[in-house]
Amino acid sequence: EQQRFLIDKLRFYDHAFDIGLARGAGEGRLRAWSAAERSKSFYLAHLLANADVPLFDDVDPAVVAEINRLEAELDACERALGTGRRGSDQDLEARFQKLSDARSRLLQSLMKTNPRWASLRHPPAFDPTALARRLPRDVTPVSFYWRDAAQGARLHVFGMGSDREPIHAEVAWDATQLGDLARRAEQLRGAVDDYLEIFAEGTTDRMLPPEFRAQLPAEACLLISAHGRLRGIPLHALPLDGQSLIDRWPVQYVPSLGLPTAARRSAGTSVLLWYATAPKPAAPAAADQPLADSTRVPAAAAQPEGPSPAVSAESSSADASAPSQ
Fold this sequence. Notes:
About 40% of the residues lie in helices and about 15% in strands. The protein contains 11 helices and 10 strands. A hairpin with a 2-residue loop joins strand 5 (about 240) and strand 6 (about 245). Helix 1 (about 1-20) runs antiparallel to helix 2, helix 3 packs antiparallel against helix 4 and helix 4 crosses helix 5 (about 115-120). The longest helix is centred in the N-terminal third of the chain and has 25 residues, at about 90-115. It starts with a helix and ends with a helix.
């Protein structure tokens, strides 16, 4: 039921995306990108808020129990309405409305006293221009978004060029290419063959077209927000000029660029998230030594998807001001 609800709601984001894109470059491109990221954030936020995840930090357990009770009764009432039993629909509808009103009042009260939970359940609007101002100059967002078509699908990729202006590319994928991508993604599950060819020939240009890559800053970390069929795909391993994408640009993943940032810490503290670029062949690091070629990104701007990398919560002001390598 939750999946059906989410899929139904995501259609509105798809419509907003199409409307924005139809306006052309400039404002239309920004609107489409915003709709894409809000779609991802909405999906993830609802999965988290409805899953067994402790989002109710510092909330009275009795309040949480009451919300769960009301939602369970609402579900039961909705299922009963779906059976279409004659004679009881009016009573059921009245009870459903009463439960819904009680839940709304409780949630509104909770959101006022716990704004962090409210922002997780209802992500704020995403503004690509504001994101460009917030991110360090050496971090460039790259966002993917699929739109299904009558024959295959179209992959949209957004990013920031060297001038920090939004860039966009669109690539058509036919059914055969989509099927091949799905098959290769399935082969990456579980035990993986060391000699597996992850990507078919031409995949790099279909995901990151040459004209798009040419506009990316030469020295930047790519902050990638994948979507749909690309989730779980090691995009940093895309073949590029005889090497891999990560040999050209460092790569960091986020589930959505539109997620709310982490809560601010007290003055003088910092949280740095580390990621490693490809090792330099001329000077390989020993197993018991830290990687020499690494970069730090503010944790508020880069929260990875999948296994969490090492996070340093040291409060040293020296760490906070250390330059990126």
